[in-house]
Amino acid sequence: MRQAVIALQDAEISQRAYLLSGEAVDLEPYERARLRIETGLRQLEAAAADDPDATRQVREFRAAATEKLALIAATISTYQLYGRESALALERTGRGERPPTKIRQIAESFIEGQRLLLARRLAMLRFPSRSNPTSRGCC
Question: DSSP string of 1-62?
């Protein structure tokens, strides 16, 4: 999830570099970031398939990331069709729709939930009698 957040930041940085320079080469990190995000989210969805809370969080993150990528793509298209000023105006109006902090909050909540799940699983491995009250040990 953290890698997906970083990839979203990379996509946004690439888009801004393109808006400043107008050079298509500046969009290459954006294209790579889109692929990294999709790959990472598919892996997360597969890993979270048996955990309803994690699945919900991954879906929520996917929706937020898709929305952010759509805004970035729209800004790039607007730049290509109508120029820098129109693209910058679109970017300014689109920032309030899904603040980056919301995306980070979803990611951090997911990561914290996974940390807690891992801690519970480790505790069960270390102290099996605590996780199974009928287990009294051997002999």
Answer: -HHHHHHHHHHHHHHHHHHHH--GGGGHHHHHHHHHHHHHHHHHHHHTTT-HHHHHHHHHHH
**How many whole angstroms from its chain centre is CA 101?**
11
Whether residue 51 contacts residue 117, with contact meaning beta carbons closer than 8 Å, is answered with yes
**Cα dist from 47 to 79, 100, 104, whole Å:** 38, 25, 20
Q: At 134, is the pLDDT very low, low, confident or very high (cuts 50, 70, 90)? A: low
What global pTM score does this model have? 0.79
Residues 43 and 7 sit within 8 Å (Cβ to Cβ): no
Whether 30 contacts 15, CB under 8 Å: yes
> pLDDT tens, 93-108?
866 445 568 888 999 9
